[in-house]
Amino acid sequence: MRTNQEVQIRDPFIYVDRKESKYYLYGSTDRNIWGKGTSFDVWVGNDLKNWEGPYPVFRPEQDFYSEENFWAPEVHYYKGAYYMFATFLLKGSGFRGTATLKSNSLTGPFTPHSEGVVTPDDWFSLDGTLHIDDEGMPWMVFCHEWVQIGDGEICAVRLSEDLKEALDEPVTLFAASDAPWPTSFKHKTRNTQANYVTDGPYVYRAENDELLLLWASFVDNVYAQGISRSKTGKITGPWLHDEEPLFSSDGGHGMLFHDLHDQLHLTLHSPNKTPNERPVFIELDENNGSIRRRDDESKRNR
């Protein structure tokens, strides 16, 4: 058994199993997260404080198309099976992208499902997440990376019903600089113009039926988490952006979920420095589409 402070993980993703009253914590778990590393694990808990594991959920075959940058796995239940969306750096092309894997169990083993990545072959892309629209059609929302285009973008693409391939060209939802809260930076060797990061999109349907998009960027070189809102309620937007980030204390790549007691939570990793990153769970209050940290509300009422 391990506590949150003993679990090193980036990009945490929680699957709530309401039948078994358990939480499954997935994420980027390779210790050498920025280089060689070929594994995904899961931690299992009855609360959000203590975890058993880690249990291996994906170990690639020798001929798998990637051997580094195994990032940001998240697991969704869809049409009778569990699908993992995960990012990989491709051996042949050197580009990154998101692929789908499949299992009949939350503890795996997951096996490759898509034929390579679902994102464009000549893009640096990452952090794909599943969204099912009002017509029941699957989409993948993902990031077109700043390392290629400077001003990182959030994009969406329609998927085949079996989640194996993209049906259309991706649609750009917005660029990071469209939002008021991220700030730019200059990189010493790559894209030395003003760069803006987009990381870890997650789609959430609010209680008032508003469609929200949680995503990460940087504020004065500090990792942060913000929210955007679809004016039409559709994934294609257009999108409006909250003025201030939801979290700006060196943490990000988060997602939203309701726990076994129906309390809304934000989970993310913090701090944003290897090997110190840990899963953080923050209770939220939701009111007519407005999302606030409960601890912020308590401070206001003092």
From TrEMBL:
Family to which this protein belongs? Belongs to the glycosyl hydrolase 43 family.
Q: Where are the residues marked Important for catalytic activity, responsible for pKa modulation of the active site Glu and correct orientation of both the proton donor and substrate as a site?
A: D127
Cross-referenced CDD domains: GH43_Bt1873-like
Instruction: Name the keywords, alphabetized.
Output: Glycosidase, Hydrolase
The domain of life for this entry's organism is Bacteria
Instruction: Enumerate the InterPro entries for this protein.
Output: GH43_arabinanases (IPR050727), Glyco_hydro_43 (IPR006710), Glyco_hydro_beta-prop_sf (IPR023296)
Say yes or no: keyword Nucleotide-binding present: no
User: Which ranges of the sequence are coiled-coil?
Assistant: none
User: What organism is listed for this UniProt entry?
Assistant: Gracilibacillus kekensis
Biological processes annotated in GO: carbohydrate metabolic process
Which named protein is this?
Glycosyl hydrolases family 43
Pathway given in the UniProt record: Glycan metabolism; L-arabinan degradation
